[in-house]
Every structure is written in structure tokens, then in C-alpha cells.
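stage 2 :: seqdesign
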């Protein structure tokens, strides 16, 4: 999840991207189409450009890591980090209890 708040609903994003792709030929350049549509929906041109790039990556038209793969990787990295922390805690606890056992007086 990104650190910024998402001002626009996913439906608005999808519609804006679709509008850019559909009306790209009606403008002299892709950027002209993006700025025109961005003004209409109230976002910056760079934001809409990022949405278009992301949609192209997810559809396979542009090289990159699709959103679902990136999300899965992020979740696995988080799980890996948590497991490493748990292992470190267990290692330290094991060493502590082993030392306590050695320090205990011997009884016959």
C-alpha cells in the first residue's frame, strides 16, 4: 500500500486510463491527451501518466513487474522479515535458558 492517500476511486482511475488510450489519436501526442483528460478529472498529468504506465505493465503492453506480482513479493518479504525476527528471538531465548541451566547448582 502506498504511503499517500488515494484521492481517486479505482473506477475513476480505470476510466481515465481508458479515456487516454481511446482518445490518444485525437490529440497530437499522448501527453496532450493525458493533460486534457487530467484537467477534466482534477488530477495532475504526471499522476495520470503513472496510471497509464501501470495499466500498460499490468496488461503486458509495457515491460515491468505487474501489480499483483509486486504485491505478492512485498508480502513475502514482510513474512521473511518477521520470520527472521522470530528466529532471532528464539535463538536469544535458547541461549539465555542454556546459560541459566549451566549456572544452576548441580544436585545429586
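stage 2 :: out
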Amino acid at each position: 500500500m502506498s504511503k499517500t492517500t488515494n484521492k481517486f476511486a479505482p473506477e475513476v482511475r480505470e476510466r481515465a486510463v481508458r479515456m487516454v488510450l481511446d482518445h490518444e489519436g485525437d490529440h497530437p501526442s499522448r501527453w496532450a491527451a493525458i493533460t486534457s483528460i487530467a484537467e477534466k478529472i482534477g488530477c495532475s498529468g504526471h499522476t495520470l501518466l503513472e496510471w497509464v504506465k501501470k495499466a500498460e505493465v499490468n496488461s503486458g503492453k509495457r515491460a515491468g513487474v505487474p501489480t499483483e506480482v509486486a504485491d505478492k513479493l512485498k508480502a513475502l518479504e514482510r513474512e521473511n522479515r518477521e520470520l527472521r525476527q522470530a528466529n532471532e528471538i528464539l535463538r536469544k531465548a535458547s541461549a539465555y535458558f542454556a546459560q541459566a541451566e549451566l549456572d544452576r547448582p548441580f544436585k545429586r
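stage 3 :: structure notes
- The mean pLDDT is 91.
- The first helix runs from residue 10 to 23.
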